[in-house]
Amino acid sequence: MTEPTTAQLKPMPDDWQRALAVVAHPDDLEYGCSAAIAAWTDAGREVAYVLATRGEAGIDTLEPAQCGPLREREQRASAAVVGVSVVEFLDHRDGVIEYGTALRRDIAAAIRRHRPELVITLNHRDTWGGVDWNTPDHVAVGRATLDAAGDAGNRWIFPELTEQGLEPWNGVRWVAVAGSNTPTHAVDATPGMERAVRSLLEHRTYIEALTEEDPESYVRGFLTGYAKSTGERFGGRPAVAFELFGR
Ligand SMILES: [Zn+2]
């Protein structure tokens, strides 16, 4: 495992037009990443979201059949706050997403549909750092997304996609992993922070089930605290960090 360092984070590349974010659950992007997405859409860039599940296993007091549609609505509202109007669901089962060719194929298909230069995903490693264990869904989706960036460009890996009219897309230049314990790059979180707070607040049912705290103070405290600590490695500016894998 790579040890965390205190080296300064580099600014994220900005010579791109289309990004696709691929994560496991509703709220995965809002827990730390959406201030960057707000800044990008402000600059006229297109960002689309693809979620492997509808997060239907995320609330103990709600049956999956009720929870899934509710979390889908919350996710769409949350995306709209940061300028994202395209939100798709791959309908893998929440909590038991399997890393494998079916997942890689679904993500490769999404990459071919959207033709992004930048792909964003969430921490694919076993832990968030130290002994803070990650969930199997994040590990599976993060890893499959890193792999699918290559799969999307190869005509012969999933030939059935080409038969469905999805031509290879070999234009992904980077995969940016949010929530990594070994980040390399960052985006200034200040311009997008208020919308990031409102965006996470749209997951209200989830947050109310999670904490006794007032939702807004919980969300604001979490996001500003996280951005501030990341900013210690970004010239003191609150920041959203990514581990950037070039291709
Ligand atoms: Zn998640």
From TrEMBL:
One matching Pfam family: PIG-L
A GO BP annotation: glycoside metabolic process
GO MF annotation, one: hydrolase activity, acting on carbon-nitrogen (but not peptide) bonds, in linear amides
UniProt keyword terms in alphabetical order: Zinc
Highest taxon above the source species: Bacteria
Residue ranges that the Swiss-Prot or TrEMBL entry lists as coiled coil: none
Keyword Transmembrane helix in record: no
Protein known as: GlcNAc-PI de-N-acetylase
Phylogenetic lineage: Bacteria, Bacillati, Actinomycetota, Actinomycetes, Kitasatosporales
